[in-house]
Design brief:
Length: 367
């Protein structure tokens, strides 16, 4: 473990929701992990390689069968990693156009029956889904069904993380597509966190009637995760100054592009924690055994983050071994998985990159 760089951490301003916003919908608690001690937890020992020679991996989802699915940003291919360590192509998402940071981005699974994908097409960013057919070692994709389309695309700032919340709704992070006018515009779905039904409809209890917008004023959020109470948190890329870890409120305005990081402007919700962009550049976020883990691309590390704004995040794996870390998720038996992204055009590939790693976790004990 490396010592964390100094952070500027101040209490979060207490803000009322904007006029006309509804409270955060009641959500079912996230199930407690099985066969593990409760957290908070920390990594222990040296991570081991689960898979290597991955090409621009962006998102990883695990299935109950023991297999995992991995998206390739540049090629649009979805690969299956079996429990035995074999890798095979499940299918290629038709219409993926890769430019800069865009391409095939986030994946999500619903009821082990539907695979959802967020990707960049020739005209927009969109979300689609496929029926997931077959069994471990032989999965295939059914016909592509559109869930949502029309997001402004760009070579960068495309957001792209999707996940099902404990309320059964599909959440998606969207970037500002390098257009500073979009994040504060509630008529646009860019620079937002969106909340929709599994088929792309607007939930009745969304904060803005008839709108998928759940929160706004975001620049390029790419990490979302829920704690055991069902509270949503997000990690967000800053511009030149501050990356952010935010507690997401329904209808909340997080300030971009008017403010970046913690400010004294009462119109916006402050992040709980912030980092200089060279130390973080967060892309993935997960909650495992009572602990948030956040990845760093430019920072070449993983952070453990306590939502208490008076705490100090701690960084891990900050060595030349791993490089850029794109995604993080719960592994089997209470472990942690993370995937590197050194083949994305901005990293320096190590031997056999990119790789999926597994780290053991142990309950944090002071002293």
């Amino acid at each position: 473990m490396t010592s964390p760089r100094p952070l500027i951490v101040v209490p979060v301003l207490v803000l009322a929701l904007l006029a006309g916003c509804t409270p955060t919908p009641t959500q079912e608690p996230t199930p407690e992990p099985t066969n593990t001690e409760a957290g908070p937890v920390t990594p222990v020992g040296d991570p081991v390689v689960i898979a290597d020679h991955l090409l621009t991996p962006w998102s990883v989802v695990r299935l109950a069968s023991g297999s995992a699915l991995i998206s390739e940003r540049d090629t649009g291919t979805i690969n299956e990693l079996t429990a035995d360590g074999d890798i095979r192509a499940v299918g290629t998402v038709e219409g993926v156009v890769h430019e800069g940071e865009s391409g095939l981005l986030g994946l999500a699974v619903l009821d082990e029956e539907w695979l959802y994908a967020y990707f960049t097409s020739a005209t927009d960013n969109r979300i689609v889904r496929f029926e997931l057919a077959g069994d471990a070692g032989g999965y295939s994709l059914g016909a592509m069904e559109e869930v949502f389309s029309g997001l402004v695309k760009a070579r960068n700032h495309d957001g792209g993380r999707i996940a099902f919340g404990p309320d059964g709704m599909l959440y998606a992070t969207t970037g500002d597509a390098s257009d500073l006018s979009l994040s504060q515009n509630l008529a646009s779905n860019n620079g937002k966190i969106l909340r929709m039904t599994p088929t792309g409809g607007v939930p009745d209890d969304n904060p803005f009637a008839g709108s998928l917008v759940y929160s706004y004023g975001h620049r390029n959020p790419q990490g979302i995760a829920w704690d055991e109470s069902g509270q949503l948190f997000a990690a967000e890329f800053g511009q030149d100054d501050w990356d952010e870890f935010n507690r997401i409120e329904a209808g909340g305005n997080y300030g971009w592009p008017i403010v970046e990081g913690i400010s004294d402007n009462p119109d916006f919700i402050n992040p709980l924690h912030q980092w200089r962009t060279g130390f973080a550049s967060p892309s993935g976020l997960t909650y495992v055994r009572g602990t948030f883990f956040m990845t760093g691309l430019a920072g070449h590390r993983i952070w453990t983050v306590d939502p208490d704004e008076n705490s100090e995040p701690v960084d891990w794996f900050n060595t030349t071994t791993y490089g850029r870390i794109r995604d993080v998720l719960p592994g089997p038996d209470g472990t942690l998985w993370f995937v590197t992204n050194n083949t994305d055009g901005r990293g320096e590939p190590r031997d056999d990159d990119d790789k999926l790693w597994q780290s053991d976790l142990d309950v944090f004990r002071e002293g």
